[in-house]
Amino acid sequence: MVLLPATGFKNDFWLWVRWAQYSRAHGLGNVYAVPGNNYNPLYHYMLWLFGQLAGSSAAIETQRYSLKLLTLPFDVAGALLAASLAGGGRRRFLSSLGLLLNLGYLYNSLVWGQVDAIYSCLSLAAVVLALRGRGAWSAACFALALAAKLQALIFLPPLLLLWAPRWWQAPRRLAAALLAGAGTLALVLLPFAVGGERSYLADIWRINRQAVGYYPFLSMNAFNWWQLTADGPLLTRLDSDLWHGLSYQRWGLLLFGVAATAVLLPLLLHALSRLRQPRPPDRPLALLSFALVPLVFCFFNTQMHERYWHPAVLFLGAYAGVSRRYALLVLVSLAYLLNLDAVLGYLPLRAWSPGLLHPKVVALLFAAAIGVGLTELYRLAPLGTGLRALGRQRATARLA
After folding, report:
1. What is the DSSP letter of 348?
2. Of 25, 73, 264, 364, which is least surrounded by CB within 10 A?
3. Of 10, 305, 283, nearest to 124 (Cα)?
């Protein structure tokens, strides 16, 4: 605890302290009675636990920076999970250090004090279990990730591409996965349905339904495409304004859709080939695809916060350990660190090199990372090779 920086984003900590104090005084099941509570349930379990351990409302306030101790285990667990795919003991150890000694990876929890490590770790756990053929457990972890943050939803399409071939080969696995995911989510929601003065399920649904548009601005300090193409203060410009005939928000969704299609096409072809020829998923291809999804999500969409890059670093750590290609991990970790510190200003980076923190410079680093990532992706799975292999499988099936 002595080593924890006594710093963080003050508005976040103010809210978390109030929610922890309320759940300690009135029970976990009533925490959504607090006006402005817009977090999904899983973190409220942690705030309730923190309140119980603190012992008093005053202690929750004075020990607020100790909340980081609830998130840091997910950083460590995520790094160890990523390293578990790397192979032998020495490679696993070195792979884990690529994240555990990575300031870009740790800054979010250790300095900023935010909680993106929770859903990122749970999303990676869902992917690792899917790669190992544990579909039901994978679905349960994904449900927990959704219960932590709605952003985990961006991983559903690539997860379906990992799950679907095994469901096709044994449909009972689909039923088991659905039961595991729905059951896990129901257990998480149970205290908020029956443990309070009333059911707060409608409030939780409203929070998630209104998540898009909660901050209806061009960028919430994510240094992305809009830093390169739009003028003026993006933090106050409404994304409903028109740009070349469409709203900024619609342009963002359109660009994200095109980029996500390019990212997921090789994995789609790989999944289709696995339908007819059962075999384990290609791990480097899958991990790189999962890393690129949050990159293009945060780069092209409006309303993006600076922290939304976080899962990309974790998945790139896993990809680097498996592929032994570290350039993307280094590049995205650097860009992410610069984006975070340009907003929070904890490190003396601005004094050393103010130009390095310029939003356009950081946005160009992320753009370069997406370009390098797509190049590596299509090197791993050339489009022509994938289409030809799929065609051969169909021809063989027709002859059979």
Report:
1. T
2. 25
3. 283
Q: Which residue is it, tokens 């020495």?
A: 90
Q: Roughly what angle, to the nearest 10 degrees, separates helices 172-194 and 201-209?
A: 110
Strand extents, DSSP E, the chain: 242-243, 246-247
The first and second tokens of residue 161, run together, are 């591409």
Whether 366 has a pLDDT exceeding 70, the answer reads yes
Contact criterion met (CB below 8 Å) for 88 and 125: no
- Cα 286 to Cα 290: distance, rounded to the nearest angstrom: 6
Q: Other C-beta atoms within 10 Å of 225: how many?
A: 25
From the centroid of its chain, how far is CA 294? 7
- Strand pairing partners for 221? 305
In angstroms, the CA 220 to CA 233 distance is 10
**DSSP 8-state code for residue 212:** T
pLDDT reported for residue 227: 96
Q: How far is CA 382 from CA 56, 181, 370, 387, in A?
A: 59, 34, 17, 9
CA nearest neighbour of 85 among 139, 124, 117? 124
Number of H helices, E strands in the chain: 19, 2
**Which residue carries 């548009």 as its tokens?**
213
What pLDDT, on a 0 to 100 scale, did the predictor assign at position 87? 81
Distance CA 214, CA 271 (A): 35
Cα dihedral 48, 35, 200, 9 in deg (nearest 10): -40
Nearest Cα neighbor of 53 from 43, 44, 63 is: 63
The pTM score is 0.94
Q: What are phi and psi of 129, to 5 degrees?
A: -65, -35
Q: Both tokens of residue 368?
A: 């370069």
Q: How far is the CA of 375 from the CAs of 271, 307, 319, 378, in angstroms?
A: 20, 25, 15, 5
CA atoms within 13 A on the CB side of 165: 23
Q: Give the tokens for residue 382.
A: 């050339």
**Residue range 93-99: average pLDDT?**
93
Using DSSP, state whether 251 is helix, strand or coil.
Answer: helix
Name the phi and psi angles at 355, rounded to 5: -65, -25
Distances (CA, A) of 228 to 223, 224, 359, 366: 9, 7, 8, 11
Please, what's the b/e burial string for 70-85 (b: 16 or more CB within 10 A of its CB; e: otherwise)?
A: bbeebbbbbbebbbeb
Task: Convert the pLDDT of each residue in 110-138 to its tens digit.
Answer: 999 999 999 999 999 999 999 999 999 99
The residue behind tokens 């219960």 is: 147
